[in-house]
Amino acid sequence: MKADEEIKAVEIFDGDQWQAMLVKSLLDNAEIESFLKDQRMGVLAPWNVDAGGAGPVKIYVSSLDVEKAREVIAQYEQAETTENIDE
What we know:
single chain, alpha+beta, Alpha-Beta Plaits, 3 strands, globular
């Protein structure tokens, strides 16, 4: 990171409550700090978050951890896709 770059929160994932909690746990295990946004709104008032039902819960990480977080999420998505094919 360059000295003049600002550290920002970057949205890295969105999904339903269950998916977001699982991905957050994977990020925690990889020692990547993250936080959830719209966690309560997606449950209490899903029509305010997404017109089709329970809205997405978003996960944010530091701009310093984006690449590492993307790798963790890519592994999760690959495993999820493989699991769905096997069913």
